[in-house]
Amino acid sequence: MTGCLVATSITGSNKPCTGCKIATIVFARTLNLSHIFLTGFLSADSRMNAPSASSRRASSRRASSRLRFLTVRATAGDTVILPCYLPPEISTETREFRWFKGTDCVFQRRFSEENEGAEQIWMMLFKGELNLTLKDVKVTDSGQYRCEILAEKKEEIAVIHLHVAEFKLVSRSEDVGNPNVQPLDSTSSDEWSSSFVDSHDVFYGDDVTLSCYLSPETSAVTMEIRWFKGADCVYLYQNGQVTEGRGYEGRVSVITDDLQRGNVSLNLRDAQRSDRGEYRCEITDGEKKVENNGVYLHVSGSLKIPQTRPVNVHVGETVTLQCYLTPRTSAVTMEIRWFKGADCVYLYQNGQVTEGRGYEGRVSVITDDLQRGNVSLNLRDAQESDSGEYRCEITRGTNKLESDGVHLRVTEFILVYRSEDVGKRDRRQSSPHVVFTSAGYDITLPCFLSPETSAVTMEIRWFKGADCVYLYQNGQVTEGRGYEGRVSVITDDLQRGNVSLNLRDAQESDSGEYRCEITDGEKKVDTGLFCKILFTFHNLQIYTLSTHFTYLITVSYKSIHTP
Questions:
Q1: Facing residues of 70 across strands?
Q2: What is the pLDDT of residues 4-22, one digit of tens each?
Q3: Does residue 419 share a domain with residue 544?
Q4: What's the pLDDT score for residue 10?
Q5: Are 251 and 268 within 8 A, CB to CB?
Q6: 223 with 288, same domain?
């Protein structure tokens, strides 16, 4: 092929291109960019392989799928851009494009070497943008616009419906009077949408305002105002009279004093689960009608309890049963109830507190934290009788939220993993214990009774997952399968409440989670203590932490060098 130049020709390096199968920039007479025009060439191989009838039908289907539809709304005086995007597969074949309003051609551009400003034309094609800009639009500019290109054949690639009104609806007061209207973007690569939806997230029972303003500022006193949720009208203002939709009675309104300034925002009180959905405003003024693009209302709320395992404390300790509103919302005006089983042990209502029988002076919430949605229950001087499942219930208006339950175990003793924590009350959770080891080494998983209590007559079980790997019962020891001869406790230390597990000769099969369980007659306590043993050939392993005591034991081989 002759006369075919690659992009480096711009710098003066003219290289002929042979066998070129793609569209190419061709320079006619000179390398001056103002004389660039686009054309497409087929190589000899391509000409020999002419498209079959089936490929032509496929091409027709692709052309049909390239047609895009869009609706653009504007106000008289605005500058409007009607977007048209040229598909990459045909961009370099384009010879001409036209914009039509109805059957009238309103804009035409041919691509040829004689065009002035050919550089700008080339950039237009390179970007794939054939947008039509209309300045100072008028109501009479409303109508259907089409973008048509001429490549190998004539093809429509965009159909846009332009609605120009004397006024428009905007969602922000600062946008009132702003003449600039941006084209709506497509919601996907396959479909363009005519609605650009804002969203509001509110908590059950909250009041919310769905903002909407006439632009330019225009009195809406004599207009009809309709707010829809989906296809249902939830609010109608007509001739100074108001009609509220079913289920919205007494909960929806506009501020009539603000209608003079074009504020047609909808106020919704006491948001309900059923209020979730898309809302839009429609304004009618005589024969003129305009609507906004809609707003989506999310109504949600839940109570989150971080504890997923039982909470273990010993008699006399103070414990916090954590619970939070999500999304974080002030609970100051809500009713807060904490239950143990079916019995209410704590009630916060209208700023007043009522404590359940047997819990007088021992239960509270931190009132300063209610503003941040923290409704955790503090329980002081825990008693064995306090053991059980607790749950929180929040009421706001007609909405009620209930948390999952959290199990509290109050025993005469608990299990701790640090000897220095034995006997301490109101302990803070410390950092998880980490044990590093190498394959074949011996390790100890520490565990102690607190307060210091003899474990000689108790049952001691250590589990790996669901499998018991060590059992001490009535002075006798049973070792789990695969752990024979490798697990033990120091029996002389049981008198001091030391129930730590010694594991000898760490193996790859030891990888997993371990926990300790102590039984003393009818009393049972579980550490919630997890030991993660990881097997690796490296001397260092990054460890992960859990919500309780976590041991991460890294098992690794040491290199042995022999002469």
A1: 160
A2: 333 333 333 334 333 333 3
A3: yes
A4: 31
A5: yes
A6: yes
Given 355, 386, 411, the domain boundary residue is: 411
Task: Report DSSP letters for 361-428, one per residue.
Answer: TTEE--GGGGGGTB-PEEE-S--GGG-EEEEEEEEETTEEEEPPPEEEEEES-EEES-GGGTT-SSPP
pLDDT at 451: 82
pTM greater than the 0.85 cutoff: no
For 109, the token pair is 């551009």
Q: What is the DSSP letter of 56?
A: H
Residue 469 is predicted with a pLDDT of: 94
Specify if 210 maps to a domain: yes
Tell me the CATH number at 215: 2.60.40.10
Determine the length of the chain: 563
Cβ(351)–Cβ(302) below 8 Å: no
Q: How many domains does the chain have?
A: 5
74/102 same-domain check: yes
* Bridging pattern class, strands 24-27 and 36-39: antiparallel
Q: 513 burial class (0-12, 13-18, 19+ CB within 10 angstroms)?
A: middle
Quote the CA–CA distance of 396 and 415 in Å, as a whole number: 40
d(CA 545, CA 434): 9
**Residues 433, 377 share a domain:** no
> Quick one: CA torsion of 384, 385, 389, 395, rounded to 10 degrees?
-130
473 pLDDT more than 60: yes
Parent domain of 37: 7-50
Query: pLDDT, tens digit, for every residue of 193-209?
Result: 334 457 888 887 788 99
Decide which of 393 and 166 is more confident. Answer: 393
- Vertex 94, ends 89 and 96: CA angle to 5°? 150
Give bridge partners of residue 463 from the DSSP assignment. 468, 515
Lowest mean pLDDT of 56-70, 121-135, 293-307, name the range.
56-70
Q: What is the CA radius of gyration of the chain?
A: 38
% of the chain residues with pLDDT over 90: 34
Three-state SS for 69-135 is: EEEEEEECCCEEEECCECCHHHHCCCCEEEEEECCEEEEEEECCCCCCCHHHHHHHHHHCECCEEEC
Inter-residue long-range contacts of 367-371, CB under 8 Å, 24+ positions, other chains counted: 370/330, 370/331, 370/332, 370/336, 371/330, 371/331, 371/332
